[in-house]
């Protein structure tokens, strides 16, 4: 482990002197540890250069393999080495974090200044990366997942900038669609409904998240589909217009789930988050 910590520091900083200082070794001891690791693996890991070091192909592969694990170990140790600190780990859908949660977290911290927040985001719910979250916020179906509590009903709606939305209402309109990856069925079904009304739908761009799709729609690029909760502020403020849709179509909800044996900090966050979602 000492060899790996020394290697990780040198790879990240690109300088043996700085890495030695970070891990508390002399430069000679640092060099000896790197050499021992290279001998153990039978591979050269660094190329020594006049102003530092760079990784070989083998070194680059090793760094990619071990860096996430070392970071996770470090976070785990920090939780036990900071006595008296109430640490709350949150895993949140990235679009929900960008469009709703991060703007409201200062309110939670003002109410609970004794809780240290740690947050990680994920594009989709399975993307947990081994993160042991106390609270998870995610988009799911309208039916309650096991042990989850409703944060906000959020059916999928179509939205566009005001001028673009006005143009879409006319018969035989040509609609540019801002598609979100992973939701082919939903977008195809919506597009088919428009074509049935003699409107032409063409895919303008495909992007990997609702937040960016909403930003592009607000800029006037076209129409996108998104959970209504994410667009609520923009629709209320007139930056986006919700296009007509069937109320029973594309039902979704945002959910909040606590880990087993929830801490008082997690329970306090749940109470705050559900109230904030209702007040938004």
Please describe what this structure looks like.
- The structure is a single chain.
- This protein has 280 residues and is α/β, with parallel strands linked by helices.
- It has three domains: 2-81, Winged helix-like DNA-binding domain superfamily/Winged helix DNA-binding domain (Arc Repressor Mutant, subunit A, Orthogonal Bundle), CATH 1.10.10.10; 86-154 and 253-279, 3-Layer(aba) Sandwich (D-Maltodextrin-Binding Protein, domain 2), CATH 3.40.190.10; 156-250, Periplasmic binding protein-like II (D-Maltodextrin-Binding Protein, domain 2).
- 47% of the residues lie in helices and 25% in strands.
- The protein has a five-stranded mixed sheet with strand order 4-3-5-12-6, covered by helices on one side.
- It is globular.
- The model has no long low-confidence stretch (mean pLDDT 87).
Summarize the structure.
The chain is an alpha/beta fold and 280 residues long.
Mean pLDDT: 87
CATH homology-level superfamily of the largest domain: Periplasmic binding protein-like II
How many beta-strand segments? Answer: 12
Low-confidence stretches: none
Give the helix/strand class.
alpha/beta
Topology:
Elements: H1 2-13, H2 16-23, H3 27-41, E1 46-49, E2 52-55, H4 57-81, E3 86-93, H5 94-111, E4 115-122, E5 135-141, E6 148-153, E7 156-160, H6 162-168, E8 174-180, H7 184-196, E9 200-207, H8 210-218, E10 223-227, H9 228-236, E11 241-242, E12 252-258, H10 264-279
Parallel strand pairs: 3-4, 3-5, 8-9, 8-10
Antiparallel strand pairs: 1-2, 5-12, 6-12, 7-10, 7-11
Helix pairs in contact: 1-2, 1-3, 1-4, 2-3
